[in-house]
Design the sequence.
């Protein structure tokens, strides 16, 4: 994430403004959990992470839900993971049903991410990190998450090169 921040012009930080906070959290855990060979193979994602911030309000719950679903593959009988997956699906449907929400909607999204969303993500990542093939699972999960974020950002009016309605992210 520090490399992505430098590429985005944010200075040296592991939470660049141009990367979605949930995606940055996933990337930090993957980076800290995988071996050196896998980490080097993921180096190419730094440029994509530098501009991966979808504006879609449902993105956080969809990302957390996909990580929970990946963990459920390892532990399909886990009631806790099943409950977290259902909560993420319900949460991702709420913004689609509501109006854009403005400030109250964004505050609710932030509170969900800072509370249950982060806990669900951390629990699912602990399950994935304990897998015998954790490096491959985590690397694949991060690659899919980055691709999804970039696709969703492109759907928000931001093109692959960062230009769009909102202007460049790394000004």
Sequence:
């Amino acid at each position: 994430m520090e490399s992505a921040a430098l590429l985005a012009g944010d200075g040296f930080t592991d939470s660049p403004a141009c990367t979605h906070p949930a995606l940055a959290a996933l990337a930090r855990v993957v980076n800290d959990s995988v071996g050196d060979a896998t980490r080097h193979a993921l180096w190419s994602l730094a440029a994509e992470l530098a501009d991966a911030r979808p504006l879609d309000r449902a993105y956080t719950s969809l990302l957390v839900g996909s990580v929970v679903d990946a963990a459920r593959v390892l532990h399909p009988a886990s009631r806790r993971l099943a409950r977290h997956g259902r909560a993420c699906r319900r949460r991702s449907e709420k913004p689609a049903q509501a109006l854009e929400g403005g400030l109250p909607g964004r505050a609710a999204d932030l509170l969900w991410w800072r509370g249950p969303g982060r806990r669900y993500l951390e629990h699912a990542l602990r399950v994935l990190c304990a897998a015998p093939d954790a490096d491959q699972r985590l690397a694949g999960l991060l690659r899919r998450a980055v691709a999804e974020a970039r696709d969703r950002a492109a759907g928000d009016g931001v093109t692959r090169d960062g230009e769009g309605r909102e202007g460049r992210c790394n000004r």
Q: What stands out?
A: DSSP finds eight helices and no strands in the chain.
